[in-house]
Amino acid sequence: MQAAPPVPAPARVRRLPRWVAPVAGVVVGVALYVAFRGKSVLPHDDDATLFHWLNDARDWVDANRNSNPIFLYVVNYLRLGAAEVFALIQGALVALGWPGLVGLAAGLGWLAGGWRIALVSLVGFAGLGVLGFWEASVETLALTLSAVVLSLLFGIPLGIWAGRSPRVRRIVTPVLDVMQIMPTFSYLSPMVLLFLIGPASSTIATMIYAMPPAIRITALAIERVSGVTVEASESLGATRWQTLRKVRLPLALNTIMLGVNQTIAAALSMVPLTALIAAPGLGEDLIRALARVNVGAALVPGIAIVLIAIVLDRMTRAAAQRRDGGTRAQAVRWGGFAVLTAAGLALTPVLAQEFPEQWQVQIVRPINDVADWIEAHWYTFTGFLNDTVAYGFLNPLQDVLTSAPWWLVTAAVLVFAWRVSGLAAGLVAAACLLGVAALGLWEHGMQTLTMVLVGAVMTIAAGLALGVAAARSRWFSAVLRPLLDAAQTMPSFSYLLPAVALFGNGRFTAITAAFIYAVPVVARVVEDGLRAVPGTVMEAARSAGSTDRQLLWKVQLPMARGSLLLAANQGIVMTLAMVVIGALVGAGALGYDVVAGFAQQEDYGKGLAAGVALVLLGVMLDRITQGANGRRSPHKKRNA
3-state SS string over 266-328? Predict the structure, then answer.
């Protein structure tokens, strides 16, 4: 019997190189831009119909504030409630006097973490008076605590609910994403519309901004409680409420305290900005210094905010990490708290109610002298850098985005986001751009996007370099970490004045402030991601003969891909937030529209629409970078 002829192997289909599709897409995009340049553009129109409609809506709200049931029985009561919380906390802090408040801070520090935290708290709060900003610092502290109390009052129960219910978690997650993506400016216009200006609107705006960390971390803490422990409690006959109160919450308490820590940090970053809507405190001093371009007068209240942030951060972190040491340790903690607090309260009637002026140290003039020297001697370099970035990057990119047809920019973003992050992210990104166009703010939106892209590239490059260096060198990390801590706790306003002194008013000033503001977060996430690469993998690569350079490029960076994309995401979102604030120093674009909405009644509608446009740009950029984190790497795709 004759054997069957062998079946020929199927012809191997040759695939095009991976670079062909992107290059072809770029060529097509450039060709379309050349062909349609200057056509189907959407120039800015301050007299857009939507802006007038929003102004009419504001007028209706003002006319019906004291007659409409929604305002009478909901909005007005929320405003009065927030104002009452602030008044009670501020009254209590002022009644303590400066010795009582310093003693209470030291006592709480002792209770949270022992004598070291007590010393940090005592020195930090006393430093507020030494800097000459005691009264303003107390007002800022009162606003912060008011917002934090309300954030935790609503955030922790919602976080517990989300931690126990996957359905609730799916509902609240996109809402929390938008709340955290929103630039801080975007919160202010709606707050003014609903709650007017003053401490109440400031407290509510800060509460909304600071609530997401409380919800997210509480939900994570509840979700991570061991299921075996919960089942054991329920098998002994405990009800769901008893299991929550006696099992879940005690086991999750330390993690929930970290959520409190992050809520306080978020509130402190927002409170100074609410000075734009007539909130009292250190933000007022920052605004005045910004108007006078006084670097020292802006830096000193910024230092005061840093001191408050350090004290509250150390307290809550120590409380989160604390372990019960038995009855004796608890007695020592509570005894120290009682002694320090009583000592401070006892000194209040003896010492002056206000911090003694002779104990204050004036450092504004020395700071201004240094700033003047830098401005005089670095002018050649700073002018060159400013012009290079403006004429080499900002102007060409802005010209492309504003002269290209709106449909071409939208299609390009759709294709790019689809390739990087998937179809869903691409559709969301395109929908966000269409929303900006529908708001009548396309041109200003593209101007803002230009500054964000240039600033984000600078930020990510510098943060990546610093993070890699810190991950590869322990001593460099030890030197860098306190600098990053200080940079992260400084209020965003404080970065504008040094940038103005160096570069004058303009777009590059806003980009420089955004660079300083966002680089610490990028560097820290990159460092943590590289350090998380397993040591066994590193040793295996070294034993195979890899050099340090090969180890970085072929092992650490690919394995830390998720952290690198998270760093890029945070860098872009934070750059957007800071670039918008740069409107206060002449950056223009959407940020200027928002500020104009506060300053001029006839521009309120434009300012409110600009706030929405900023949210859309933030969501677009966030979806692209977050979606990329969920995609498989090219290396994994080839090996799949």
Answer: HHHHHHHHHHHHCCCCHHHHHHHHHHHCCHHHHHHHHHHHHHHHHHHHHHHHHHHHCCCCCHH
Taking only the tens place, the pLDDT of each residue in 567-579 is 888 888 888 888 8
**How far is it, in rounded angstroms, from Cα 201 to Cα 636?**
50
Q: Within 10 A of 609 (CB to CB), how many other CB atoms are there?
A: 26
Say if residues 493 and 313 touch (Cβ distance below 8 Å).
no
In the DSSP assignment, the letter for residue 71 is I
> What pLDDT was estimated at residue 13?
54
DSSP assignment of 9-34 equals PPPPPPPPPTTHHHHHHHHHHHHHHH
At position 74, the amino acid (one-letter code) is V
Q: How far apart are CA 60 and CA 63, in angstroms?
A: 5
What integer pLDDT is reported at residue 500 of this predicted model? 76
Query: Stretch 545-549: mean pLDDT, rounded?
Result: 78
Provide the greatest CA pair distance for the chain: 117
Amino acid in position 296: G
Whole-Å CA distances, 247 to 164, 226, 242, 296? 13, 10, 8, 51
Examine the pLDDT at 372 and tell me if it is beyond 70.
yes
Close Cβ partners of 514 (under 8 Å, ≥ 6 residues apart): 455, 459, 574, 575, 577, 578, 579, 582
DSSP 243: H
A 10 A CB-CB count for 494 gives: 25
How far is 563 from 633, CA to CA, in rounded Å?
13
pLDDT at 635: 44
Query: Would you state the structure tokens that stand for residue 247, as one six-digit string?
Result: 């099992």
Provide the strand spans (E) within 368-419.
none
Contact 562, 447 (CB under 8 A): no
SS3 202: helix
Stretch (H or E) spanning 182: none
128-175 per-position pLDDT tens digit: 888 888 889 999 999 999 999 999 999 889 988 888 888 888 888 888
How far apart, in whole angstroms, are the C-alpha atoms of residue 635 and residue 267?
41
List of E strands, 325-385: none
The amino acid sitting at 580 is V
How far apart are alpha carbons 35 and 445 in whole angstroms? Answer: 23
Residue reference for tokens 């917002």: 147
pLDDT tens, position by position, 226-258: 777 777 777 777 777 777 777 777 777 777 887
Query: pLDDT, tens digit, for every residue of 614-631?
Result: 889 988 988 888 766 555
Distance between CA atoms of residues 554 and 577, nearest Å: 34
User: What's the DSSP call for residue 582?
Assistant: G
**pTM of the entire structure?**
0.82
Token reading at 87: 């008044």
Q: Own/partner pairs for 419-422, CB < 8 Å, 24+ apart?
A: 419/22, 420/624, 420/627, 420/628, 420/631, 421/623, 421/624, 421/625, 421/626, 421/627, 421/628, 421/630, 421/631, 422/627, 422/630, 422/631
pLDDT of residue 10: 57
Alpha-carbon span 449 to 29, nearest angstrom: 19
Distances 416 to 26, 409, 616, 624, 627 between C-alpha atoms, Å: 10, 11, 17, 9, 12
At 360 the three-state DSSP class reads: coil
Tokens matching residue 306? 């840093």
Residue corresponding to tokens 């979606």: 627
CA distance 34 to 606: 32
The label of the residue with tokens 């189907």 reads 40
